[in-house]
Design brief:
230 residues, alpha+beta, 2 domains, 7 helices
Length: 230
C-alpha cells in the first residue's frame, strides 16, 4: 500500500469514528445535516469587555434534504450531488462523503431508478420529476436495518467514564439512544455487533472492554450507596 492510500484510509477512518455513512445511491432521498459556524460580532459600546474585537463562534446544524442525482469518485474523494426544489427553483449541492462538516446522513426514502446519473431531473417539474419508491427485497432489508435502542427513561449517564468513549463518540451513542451504563453492561453479542456495525467502531467495544468497565462502574456506585455497618 502506497503512502497516499494509507493517509487517505486514516482520514476516512477518522471521519467514520465520528459518524457513519449509510448505504445510499442515486434516486434516494437523503437528509444531510451540515455543520454551520456563525460568527457573532461583539458590541463595541460595551466597555466592560476589553476583548471587544474578538468574535465568538456558534455552531449549529442545518438540514439539507433532497434527491441524490449523482455519486462519483472513490475513497476519500468520493462525493454525491443532492438536488432539491426551493421556492420553485432547483438547487443542487455537492457533498464529499467524508467531509468533516457533515454531522449525519439520513436516508429518508429509497428511489427506483435505472440510471447512475439523474441529470435529466433538471429539466423536469412537478409530477414529471417524481421518482417511484423502491420496494424490492434489498430496499426492505436496508429499511429494516437496525437503527438503535428504545430510548430509556431518565437523564444520560456520564459515559465518558468508560475508557475509549470520547465526547464525539458519546454524541454518536446518543443518536442510537445508548446513554446508560446499564445498557452497555447488559450488551448481548447481537447488541455489540449492531452498535459496532452502525457506528463503525471496528471492534472497539470488545478491545476496550466497555461491558466490563460499565459493570465495574455500576458495582462501585452500588457499593458507595450501601451504608457502612456501625
Amino acid at each position: 500500500m502506497d503512502i497516499i492510500r494509507q493517509l487517505e484510509l486514516e482520514q476516512m477512518n477518522a471521519v467514520l469514528t465520528k459518524r457513519g455513512v449509510p448505504e445510499f445511491s442515486p434516486g434516494d432521498t437523503v437528509k444531510v445535516m451540515v455543520r454551520v459556524v456563525e460568527l457573532s460580532e461583539p458590541d463595541p459600546k460595551d466597555k466592560k469587555k476589553k476583548a471587544a474585537a474578538a468574535r465568538s463562534q456558534a455552531e449549529r446544524l442545518q438540514a439539507y434534504e433532497g434527491v441524490v442525482i449523482a455519486r462519483s469518485g472513490a475513497g476519500l474523494n468520493e462525493n454525491f450531488t443532492v438536488r432539491k426544489i426551493s421556492y420553485g427553483e432547483g438547487v443542487e449541492r455537492v457533498f464529499p462523503v467524508y467531509s468533516p462538516i457533515i454531522a449525519e446522513i439520513e436516508v429518508i426514502r429509497r428511489g427506483k431508478v435505472r440510471r447512475a446519473k439523474l441529470y435529466y431531473l433538471r429539466g423536469r417539474r412537478g409530477k414529471a420529476a417524481r421518482i417511484v419508491e423502491r420496494t424490492d427485497v434489498r430496499a426492505r432489508r436496508l429499511n429494516a436495518a437496525w437503527k438503535g435502542f428504545k430510548k430509556p427513561k431518565g437523564d444520560a449517564d456520564d459515559l465518558l467514564l468508560i475508557k475509549g468513549i470520547t465526547p464525539d463518540m458519546f454524541g454518536r451513542l446518543k443518536q442510537i439512544n445508548c446513554i446508560k451504563f446499564d445498557q452497555i453492561a447488559n450488551f448481548s453479542d447481537e447488541d455489540i455487533a449492531n452498535v459496532d456495525d452502525t457506528l463503525n467502531l471496528m471492534g472497539r467495544i470488545e478491545k476496550d472492554d466497555w461491558v466490563g468497565q460499565a459493570q465495574r462502574i455500576i458495582a462501585e456506585a452500588s457499593a458507595a450507596e450501601i451504608p457502612a455497618d456501625a
